[in-house]
Automatic annotation (TrEMBL):
Domain of life: Eukaryota
Entry keyword Transmembrane: yes
Pfam families for the chain: Ldl_recept_a
Keyword line: Disulfide bond, Membrane, Transmembrane, Transmembrane helix
Transmembrane segments: 59-82
Official protein name in the record: Uncharacterized protein
Length: 117
């Protein structure tokens, strides 16, 4: 009998590694390692197909989350940029208005002092 569960027992009581079973090459003396391979391969293929489908689904979810995160980041950055530009524009307009008001303020004071004399 084979010691490990990773081995396959041939009819001549030799043990081979399970990775040599259904590999298309005769490893046992009477080729029993290549018998019933259709059942073995279909069971393995089902497991691989299920695993592959799960990985594809996880990958698609990861891509969708990444794209949504990128779009959300762009929206936030755009909102901050627009807010900053508006703030700068308002500040510049206030500065211009104050500059214009300060330009005419001395004249208004001068006219007031003239009217009292």
């Amino acid at each position: 009998p084979c010691i490990s569960n990773r081995t396959f027992l041939c009819s001549d009581e030799t043990c081979i590694n399970k990775r040599f079973v259904c590999d298309g090459k005769r490893s046992c003396l009477f080729s029993e390692d290549e018998e019933n391979c259709h059942q073995f391969l279909s069971a393995t293929t089902k497991k691989i197909t299920a695993w592959t489908h799960q990985k594809k689904t996880e990958f698609v979810h990861l891509v969708i989350i990444t794209i949504l995160g990128f779009v959300l980041s762009l929206i936030i950055i755009s909102a901050i940029t627009v807010s900053c530009k508006r703030s700068i524009y308002k500040t510049q307009n206030i500065y211009k208005i104050n500059k214009i008001m300060n330009k005419y303020e001395p004249t208004a004071k001068f006219e007031e002092s003239d009217s009292f004399s």
